[in-house]
Specification:
This protein has 94 residues and is an alpha+beta fold. Helix content is 45%, strand content 15%. The chain has a two-stranded antiparallel sheet.
Length: 94
């Protein structure tokens, strides 16, 4: 997915970007094999997405990794609270 596509996707989420935390993970061999088996179960989509000289999805460098996204609403709420309770004319750190 191109960077611009990812930005557009993140922009359309029903939460603030500050609330998102990405955790890249390397899967162990058993997890990677299970992920590949699950992807292959999509019989009509997998072959179309797999098209490439090396195999886009079945290549170990691809299916052996994933990103876990978590949503933490507190960072965004804290930022809003700080901006609401700041006294007019005062700067941070003073």
């Amino acid at each position: 997915m191109a960077l611009e596509e990812r930005r557009r996707f993140l922009h359309d989420l029903p939460c603030e970007r500050a609330a998102l935390a990405a955790e890249p993970r390397r899967l162990d061999p058993e997890q990677a094999a299970a992920k590949l088996a699950a992807m292959r179960s999509y019989g009509s989509q997998f072959p179309a997405l797999e098209l490439a000289p090396l195999g886009r999805l079945s290549h170990p460098y691809v299916h052996g990794h994933e990103v876990l996204w978590t949503v933490d609403p507190l960072p965004a709420a804290r930022a809003r609270a700080r901006s609401r309770f700041r006294l007019p004319g005062r700067r941070r750190g003073r």
